[in-house]
TrEMBL record:
Residue intervals of the F-box domain: 5-58
Pfam families documented for this protein: F-box (PF00646)
Organism, scientific name: Helianthus annuus (Common sunflower)
Identification of the protein by name: F-box domain, leucine-rich repeat domain superfamily, F-box-like domain superfamily
CDD domains: F-box_AtFBL13-like
Amino acid sequence: MNVEGDRLSNLPDDLIRKILSFIDVKHAIQTSALSSRWRYIWTSMPCIDFSSEGYYMLSNFSKFVTHLLPSRNNQIDVSSVKLTFHGNDGHAHGNDIHVPVKKLLDYAFSHNVQQLNISCLRVKNIEFPLSLFSSQSLKHLTLTGYSHGCKTRFPRPSTLRVVATR
């Protein structure tokens, strides 16, 4: 059988991006080694899934987030961001978490994120920036935490308007 190229590389870019949206961004980047055509597809994914799983230190995860965001295609809006922290009792500190959360949220809001899911698993303290409540594009927000003694702090804006839509 004479097949030019592989079947995956013959798929349309939009379909490849959709497939990649089901895995975390670290694994999506690893797919760039599959072929030269796949090299930059991850940079235009509208759905980004970040997970700190597999990072022993959250500071390494923070460096990953910091270096990844400028490599993304800034012309493409971010429709969905999923951020999952898997903290260890001895390694999850508020400052380690706050840096990637703030950078990722600032980036997502500047690229018109519509859906945001944040899960903090076994994380002791986390503080969310005020930008979480001032986004004009955000339509769906899910915050999840699974930890005894978890302290989630939200900033207190001087005015906060909650609008329910159908």
